[in-house]
Design a protein that fits this description.
With 236 residues, this protein is an alpha+beta fold. It contains 9 helices and 4 strands, in the order ααβααβαααβαβα. It has a domain of 132 residues: NADH Oxidase.
Length: 236
């Protein structure tokens, strides 16, 4: 009888521990998102570690994309000469230079059906899936891509870039890495300076990352957000 009671207590205790761990995890996530803000001034003396940059690279690679096609590339810049040159084409936002690293999310300039072929070759290699199982879906996606204009494909791929940006911002918050998402830049000039045309790429989003400066006027301001009931619609 004592053994049974002990087992029950152990089970009950374990359940409490799991609940507390889960609750703490949720609280830590929300606290990290509350800690995050769009940094206006970076500490120029601080640099992200190789491990931190690798975490961001992995997070980018693990971002969900439509059909898993990953029509994206991430340019990671740690070159103050290039960063300084890009400031002029970023509406003179100093974060581009001050940041430890500058991340530029790119999409293909032109997107071709060969990308579908490359994707399914990778699926076959990684999962060892027989080609006869893959072919129906492969043919479907090939037809879908073939019937779209390059303008439609560019918009579709740009939507994937925003998913990647959101994912990076969340990971940055969890890892206590500061960031400032930017749409305000000249893609044509970025493409020229970074020589992206030769790689069939065009820049769509910019993300300076690093550490907030102690005198950034934004760092202690309260976050302004709507009440949950004003932004959430629940259907039961």
């Amino acid at each position: 009888m004592c053994i049974n009671i002990t087992n029950r207590n152990l089970t009950f205790s374990t359940s409490i521990d799991v609940f507390l761990l889960f609750t703490t995890k949720i609280m830590n996530t929300i606290e990290s998102l509350q800690w995050r803000y769009a940094v206006k001034k970076f500490d120029k003396e601080k640099t992200l570690s190789a491990t931190q940059i690798h975490t961001l690279k992995e997070a980018f690679n693990l971002t969900p994309t439509s059909y898993g096609l990953q029509p994206l590339k991430l340019i990671v810049i740690q070159n103050k000469t290039i960063q300084e040159e890009l400031v002029l084409h970023s509406m003179n936002q100093p974060q581009v230079l001050e940041a430890s690293h500058l991340l530029v999310i790119c999409i293909p300039k032109t997107y071709e059906t060969k990308e579908i072929e490359n994707y399914f070759n990778l699926v076959k290699k990684v999962r060892q899936t027989p080609i006869e199982i893959l072919n129906p879906f492969k043919e479907f996606l090939t037809a879908q891509i073939a019937q779209k204009t390059q303008e439609e494909l560019a918009l579709w791929n740009k939507n994937q870039a925003y998913i990647a940006l959101g994912n990076l911002l969340t990971v940055c918050a969890l890892e206590k890495i500061d960031a400032c998402p930017m749409e305000g830049f000249n893609p044509e000039k970025y493409d020229e300076i970074l020589k992206l045309k030769a790689q069939n790429l065009t820049s769509v989003l910019v993300l300076p990352v690093g550490f907030r400066a102690k005198d950034d006027y934004m760092k202690d301001l309260k976050k302004v957000r709507k009440n949950l009931e004003d932004i959430i619609v629940e259907i039961n």
